[in-house]
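Q: Convert this sequence to structure tokens.
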Amino acid sequence: MGQTPSAQAHTKKFPVLSEKDSEPIAGQYDVVIVGSGYGGAIAACRSARAGKSVCLLERGREFRPGEFPEQFAAVRQQVQLKLPGLDYEGKGLELYDFVVSDDITVLRGCGLGGSSLINAGVAMDTDPRVLRDDSWPQDFQQDLFNFKDDIKRATDMLKPTPYPHEPEKFKELKKVAQGIQKQVLDIEDMDSVLRRTKNTQLDKICYKAPVFINFDNKSLNHVGVQQPPCNGCGNCIGGCNVGAKNTVNMNYLADAKTRGAHIFTKTKVEIIRKSPVDGKWQVVYRRLTSDDQSDPRHQMVLADIVIVAAGTLGSTEILLRSKEKGALSISREIGRGFSANGDQLGVSYDNSCKANAVGVKSDYDSKDISNPPGPTVTGVIDLRKVPGQMSYKTGVIMSDGTPAVGHVTPYKALLQLISVYGSDGDDSDKWEQLGMTLKKVSVENTLPLLGSAHCDSNGEIYLDQNGVEIKWKGNDAKNAKRLNQVFKIAAKALGGKALEKPLLSDKLVPWFNGRNTITLNPTGGCCMGNTCDEGVVNHKGQVFSGSGRDVHKGLYVMDSSVVPSSLGTQPSLTVCGIAERAMRLLSQDCNWGKQNYEFVKDPSTIQWNVATKASMIFTEDLVGYYNDSKDGKR
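A:
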């Protein structure tokens, strides 16, 4: 990664969680987990705490603090791209994994820890009315009282905490909230939610966001990992080089590792099937042995229980491919129910005051930078529970944002481009305006805005010959309009200009081909349902076998793909609660005994050199190849 000596020394302070690339994967485990994001990490932790032999397989590589790119040139080298109808560009191990369709672009994190590596780490509760919607299984709705405890277990591990300081951008966000309270817009069909905020206390709609970040100055965290406090550099979505961000690597995965879990990176799972001989699950995979080449052979690991947690696109892709190859009978609903979760980007550009919303180097000198931007998100404007609101589906949320230091170059270029090319006037003058703007414009007075709302889960994930594709009809038009109105109010309150859809603007159709939505928070594809006619899994995450309520015993999905509706907020905390609940019920069904949720009193006593716990190891190589092509070629 081209680290400096000081960065290398910093990285060495953090434990290596994954096995060496040369380490063979044992032939059999009690539990095999596919994916290492929130759901996979929780599954690994709870299975290992129950004393089971655990194998976790992750497609990406392991990034430790100090190894994330902060220069734009290095960021570019960490991008992989899937375009419609084309194969992947990249080596399959790059951190930023873009899947681009004609309708939407999805960004997912590729690495041990999944998207927890590159999200903002915002821990927002889902409006309880969402979970009581008919799209959620009845058994799930009837268990909402216990679901609160599942959420609590997740927060005990991830420890969401508001930023203890008040940076410039949060002060600007409070101005926006005041503008929403005071302003009456003369816009036809404006939703009454915005009017009702006049009668709502300011601190009820604008408050510090709880984020998965450590702000305490102590040597070890609760699972024995050295974890320094946040220094406010603003690089959460670029990868935290400080080590303060509570990615699952710093807690759930580390806890699983100390309890004997085997974690393998650079391992791509192809299909899952059941052995006709002994009924065990067979997970067929391929090792990506280095950045430059991969092992073409397909190998196999056996398990009593397989938990698929590769994310909305990844889990759906694996089950789709397994079905396509005749390896697995599943519901016809597979791939359906995709949602962008109402994500929308905006920008208040060229404001009257500084927002200071740009990331700085993680090792910055406090003598040079006395006022860092703070985490990517520090506050929210929450319009979900305005008094008198008739439906939760009209609620919207907006937060501040901060591009990571390695993203500033393209961020600045896009702002400049859209501010000129997307403005009114004669197109013949645009390039001259752009040239002038490039010389003088600054981002210090610009505040990125991150919006969430509700949208229909009307998309579908399907396979082409090169991987996943997405069909999607777009965000709910009325809610998109509401968010745009909030963006405009924000810009007016800050004395700036509202730039809608700054990354993929409709005004730049010749440049971006109309792909006007980008999301880091997709849901659906393996949705929960009461029966196989309504979903792919039941309320426990068990995969339906294709008939009524019958399930494949021992096969689960636990990640954002099971969420059957948009949540109207960042989904991370809710997904964690769903995974914690699924593991609680799995433990009960499999008679694993009472789950241990306690932490040791003295984290310094935790041992990292843990003996292997595989139930069986095959010493010979698996002979032959798995045939994954239709023409018989291997």
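The chain has a mean pLDDT of 86.
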